[in-house]
From TrEMBL:
Membrane-spanning parts: 6-25, 46-66
Key words of the record: Membrane, Transmembrane, Transmembrane helix
Protein name according to UniProt: Uncharacterized protein
Domain of life according to the entry: Bacteria
Pfam families linked to this entry: DUF5316
Species name: Paenibacillus odorifer
Record's keyword annotation contains Transmembrane: yes
Length: 67
């Protein structure tokens, strides 16, 4: 069960890095204007799939805990 928790947290960290959640506003504006729309779209796609993987992994951990 703990492995699913760690995997879920890892996915959420990856998603946070991809969307720039751990940067300041100034850094995020600089990153936004320095990358192309194609790169932004790819990063958002990775972030969305990582967040979905994190939710699924944490859901599995929760189900295993209840069993």
């Amino acid at each position: 069960m703990q492995i699913f928790i760690y995997i879920g947290l890892g996915f959420f960290i990856i998603a946070g890095i991809c969307v720039g959640a751990f940067t300041t506003g100034t850094q995020q504006r600089g990153n936004f204007y320095s990358e192309s729309k194609r790169d932004r779209k790819a990063k958002n796609k990775v972030a969305n799939w990582s967040a979905l993987g994190g939710l699924i992994s944490l859901a599995i951990a929760g189900i295993l805990y209840l069993l």
